[in-house]
Amino acid sequence: MRAMYRLDSIRKCYGSIVALDIDELTLGEGRLYTLTGPNGAGKSTLLNLLAFLSPPTSGEIFYSGKRVDWNHGSMEEHRRKVTLLHQSPYLFEGTVYDNVAFGLKARGIQGEAQRRRVDKALDGVGLQGFRDRKARELSGGEAQRVAMARALALEPEVLLLDEPLANIDRETTGSLETVIASLPARGTTVVLITHDPDQPDRLNGESILLEGGRVAIPHPPVRR
Amino acid sequence: MDFLVSSFASALRLIGSFSPDVVDAVGTSLAVSAGATVFAALFGIPLGLLVGLSDFPLKRLVVTVLNTLMAVPTVVVGLVVYGFLSRQGPLGVLGLLFTPTAMVIGGVLLAAPIVANYSLASVRGADPRIVPTALTLGAGRFLAVGTLIGEIRFGILAAVIAGFGRVVSEVGVAMMLGGNIRGYTRTMTTAIALETSKGEFAFAMALGIVLMTVALLVNLFLNLLQKR
Known about the structure:
The structure holds two protein chains of two kinds.
Chain A: E1 3-14, E2 17-28, E3 32-36, H1 43-50, E4 58-63, E5 66-67, H2 72-79, E6 82-85, H3 96-106, H4 111-124, H5 140-152, E7 158-162, H6 170-182, E8 189-193, H7 199-202, E9 206-211, E10 214-217
Parallel strand pairs in A: 3-8, 3-9, 6-7, 7-8
Antiparallel strand pairs in A: 1-2, 1-4, 4-5, 9-10
Chain B: H1 2-16, H2 20-53, H3 59-70, H4 74-85, H5 100-125, H6 130-136, H7 141-151, H8 153-169, H9 172-178, H10 188-198, H11 201-227
Helix pairs in contact in B: 1-11, 2-5, 2-8, 3-5, 4-5, 4-9, 5-8, 5-9, 6-7, 8-11, 10-11
């Protein structure tokens, strides 16, 4: 297994509170991991670290075998390979197209290539015909799917999902789970936070349990 | 009551006849206020964004100073700038006292803290997910901040309009630094003060009506933009 991430003696503290304390954790390339645990276990903190949004208080993270340097230039470079989707994603003002194209524009992808990837991503989440709709006028489930399309359009190496299916209906959940489960086959590493006890099985992923900021049960070998 | 009604009618006639004194005062007011607002926005918006988006040791002190500067009486600003621009002052050689430029300088000092504070409030009130979302989608720092500004643009616009409102409606700076020179530095507010003291109530009322109309139009413009 080629390691996408290797976390070595990672601690993340907020003042005197230790939010995360992981001796070692390796996440393989093209694998799907579900992150479970009670509230306050450090799941979102771990996802923010993996998304390179904030540096650890101590310890090292290796991405694709290289030690992560937490300076701005390096962080920006890493963030372009990794995308994080929050439980209640923020959609920018403008159309669905503007939102899905946001990250592509940030990467300098313009014109026909941009339109093709936006359309493909919207098709993938079942939102054909939504590209000119105003993002702020969508329902919660539609907004969640637009956010998912926005992430998928970037074709990231790693997709981090913070309870992406928590507030949406069963039918949409099913279709998005299918999309998510198909990503590892394309080489995308997926890490997903969930409180749904059946979701790890449905997604055929490896489960990581966090408790009090520590990995309580090391994830088992890959079943796929 | 008759006095008020007849003054109001005379005021409307003065406005309708485009009295040169009214036109001059309105023109000077708008030009000075617009100039001061542009410079105040150039200083105030980046300052508000910088304070709002960054953490530094004396941040609370800076915010307190900015809040205090909003409440500085206009005559105090006029006094300080007068000290610098008067003949004996360090900038007296420039000969700016009693010119529209001096009024613009005073106006910038009045409006910039308001623009900065309102911009800061807009940043603080912005959805905390905007910048992280932009960053996770691969935006650099500048694009992420640019996206934030785009999302809070109405708050920024309101900051600029509040700054304009502060300058266009004040008397102290315009009187002390402009000198109320007819046809040159006389503004709506200084003219109202002067004409009222001379007993020319109708003329003062005409300018008051124009001033209120300007305030109304500016706010209508803001509302229109927000609806779009």
